[in-house]
Amino acid sequence: xxxxxxxxxxxxxxxxxxxxxxxxxxxxxxxxxxxxxxxxxxxxxxxxxxxxxxxxxxxxxxxxxxxxxxxxxxxxxxxxxxxxxxxxxx
Length: 90
Description:
By secondary structure, this protein is an alpha+beta fold. It is built from one helix and five strands, in the order βαββββ. The strands form two sheets. It has a three-stranded antiparallel β-sheet with strand order 1-5-4, with no helix packed on it. The chain has a two-stranded antiparallel sheet with strand order 2-3. The chain starts with 5 loop residues before the first strand and ends in a 23-residue tail after the last strand.
């Protein structure tokens, strides 16, 4: 199945959980599906995978973003990357 656009999953973790999260994502990439917080993302055909960890008090906000090619015929960024609503400048 061809995917387009991007998929983002965000959640809170403790700083101590961060190394295990990154390791788990790497292991899941080998299977072709990343599953986090009850959401599964098939990564076949991805262009990029980004993992960001941002401090928010004593916790971290983890964000995993998987980008796929733009849908054929889409021009520029107006193609509807609407799944990223966190307000960060990425």
